[in-house]
Amino acid sequence: CQAALPFPLASPETRSGVPGLPLSAEAMKINQDTVLRGKKVTLVPYTAAHVPRYHEWMQSEELQRLTASKPLSLEQEYDMQRSWRDDADKCTFIVLDSERWPGQAEENSMVGDVNLFLTNAEDPTVGEIEIMIAEPSCRGRGFGKEAALLMMAYGVRKLGITKFEAKIGQENEASICMFKKLHFKEAAVNSIFQEVMLRLDVSDQERQWLLEQTNHVEEKSYAELKQPAGMLDT
């Protein structure tokens, strides 16, 4: 479980867009003012200000391969950010280093992203999770595990998720290992896409474990943290 690989889990259709599901658009915009602060990582909403750094990450051939992605132009990346913000079937956070933010600029504190996709139109309680730690210096430090736990707990508490799925490239042993530590079980192997499907059914016992693992997390207002004390919005 010590493989020095990042943790991107995107299925091939992720960054090219997934057909919208018949859900309230507000359901997945619920996190637009949400900050989840853990010990190692802090999750913040994905805004246009994060796009240039994210675009820079995705020029990496390694990340393109591991996320089954094609390189996008900067304008296409802005379009993708707007899609992730507005679509009813997506919930996304940017992962920041808790030691750096607040304090340093967000774009200098970014280490990756974490997403939930509602991919089953017949069962909105199924969430496909993906996590990417894009900064090489931040891999192997537990950032991916805590970010996944924060997102899973958020999905259970706020979005009514009761079943999680993760699609991971077969060669990405670090990601597979990490999710098995989070109680996911191997459910299927897709030889065409060369990926493994892992699944976790959130029983009462699993829910209790998940909430215990994240009982240190603070939920705060993004607008308030970004706004200096004593300043008013104009």
Brief sketch in words of this structure:
This protein is α+β, with helices and mostly antiparallel strands and 234 residues long. It has a single domain (34-217), classed as Aminopeptidase.
Per-chain topology:
Blueprint: H1 25-28, E1 34-37, E2 41-45, H2 51-57, H3 61-66, H4 74-86, E3 90-97, H5 106-109, E4 110-117, E5 126-133, H6 143-159, E6 163-169, H7 173-181, E7 185-190, E8 195-201, H8 204-213, E9 218-221, H9 222-226
Parallel strand pairs: 5-6
Antiparallel strand pairs: 1-2, 1-9, 2-3, 3-4, 4-5, 6-8, 7-8
Descriptive tags:
24% strand; alpha+beta; nine-stranded mixed β-sheet; 9 helices; 234 residues; globular; Aminopeptidase; 32% helix
What would you say this structure looks like, in words?
By secondary structure, this protein is of the alpha+beta class. The protein has helices at 25-28, 51-57, 61-66, 74-86, 106-109, 143-159, 173-181, 204-213, 222-226, and strands at 34-37, 41-45, 90-97, 110-117, 126-133, 163-169, 185-190, 195-201, 218-221. It has a nine-stranded mixed beta sheet with strand order 7-8-6-5-4-3-2-1-9, sandwiched between helices. Helix 2 (51-57) packs across helix 4 and helix 6 crosses helix 8. Mean pLDDT is 84; it is low at 1-25 and 229-234.
